[in-house]
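Hey, can you fold this one?
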Amino acid sequence: MMSEPKRVHPISMFIDFISDAISLIKNIIIPFFVLVFVNSNSSIRFYVFIILGVLLLWKAVLTVLAWRKFTYRMEDDEFRVESGVITKRKKYISLERIQTVNTSEGIFQRIFGLVRVQIETAGGTDGPEVSLTAITRAEAEQLKQSIFNRKKRLQQEGAELDETGDQLQDHLTEQKWAEEEVQVSYRMGVPELLLASTTSSGIGVIISGCLAIYTQIDEILPLDGFMKRFSFLSHASIEIYAILIFLAVLLAWILSVGVTSLQYANFVAKRKGKDIIITRGLIERHQMTIPLARIQAVKIKENILREPFGFATVMLVSAGGSISEKETSSVLFPLIRKKRINELLSQFTEYYQMEPELKKVPKRSLKRYLLSYGFVPLLVGVILSVCFPPWGYLALIPLPIALFFGYLAYKQSGYAIRGQLIQLTTRGIGKTTGIVLRKRMQNYTMSQSYFQKKGRVASIHTFVKSSAFLDSFGVHHLEEEEAAHVFDWYSYEHNKST
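Sure. Predicted structure:
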């Protein structure tokens, strides 16, 4: 049945046209705004609207033709897609390369009872390998089952030919999980969602985005008239400026809360057999499937708002998947108490556990952490204090804050080894812990600067595969002997002999 070429639902034409139109308008929004609303020549305005209408009409025609030319099917253990209006393109994807089949529901898909299907491979591109804009839920389930049933058969045939190494072990592990049919779930309730939203670090992204937009508009639009209306602020007191800054930060925080709430509303993580299925989203509902065999590491992040209350975010670093979805879709537990992490990780991942006791960096590394954190704030503070007294002295305020975070980094950095797992903990402003299975480590590096060598300390790093990139974990200024001990643990020859 799946060998017959099929088309996506006709509503996909409308969805694709809206998406293309938004992308087009977004790319020309600034010159369009200048020519239409700033320019006083009515003839130019008329021609601008004519050109915009022609471009949108051309987009509509291309969308209809693209829909008619786009077909998909499964044949000869391949997923085949044919497309192209002017140039005909054929894409054949081996089922063995397919890692996940994810679904999402935007506003229009939900109205018509449809879903978007995204097929991702281990290659890791800037988007899914194939995207089916709109098909029925029944077709999506049938497609997903057909792909993974055939893929399972191919893996079983491959395992019979290769009976050695990690491939066999992974295959046997997957069989064990499939036979057990483990089913556990984690659901984030409304209190957890509100707490996750209010303690999110997204406020920094909102503020930086607003500043970036302001700098772009300021170069093109004449804002002199706008600035004149608020010229009275140049004579305002410090209290007025403080209130305005507070209101701006409050607005950015409210926007951050709203974005995070929409992103993680209805968040559910389930483990079914050998897969973890993550569903999230209010307006647009996403569903992602992560095979347990593709998990490369577990990442635990604690920002400065959640850490004092004992909360953390747990993420999965997995091979494959699109770069654009990497940060949001890999979240396993958006907000969880640290004391519950091991309990849930044991149910969802089998292997991964968080060690409470770490081998810390030596005491003589304290000065190195303080120097690395405090050098830049000290340098900037001194320069501004000398050049712009007395207001320049305010630039020294960040120095004690930086030294405080440097001290925290010294106290909390370290590593732990348990069996085939290594845990590496470090921090910048927030704390990050990586738990990695030895066979998932792409490499291990031990580095020493001249001054580190004199102090008998070293920095260690490991990398794991994540999408098209390598995700890294490390510890700075570790005892030289401890860094060598980790190398012995990682070394292939050492492990082979023991």
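Residues 11-38 form the longest helix (28 residues). Let me know if you want another pass with a different chain boundary.
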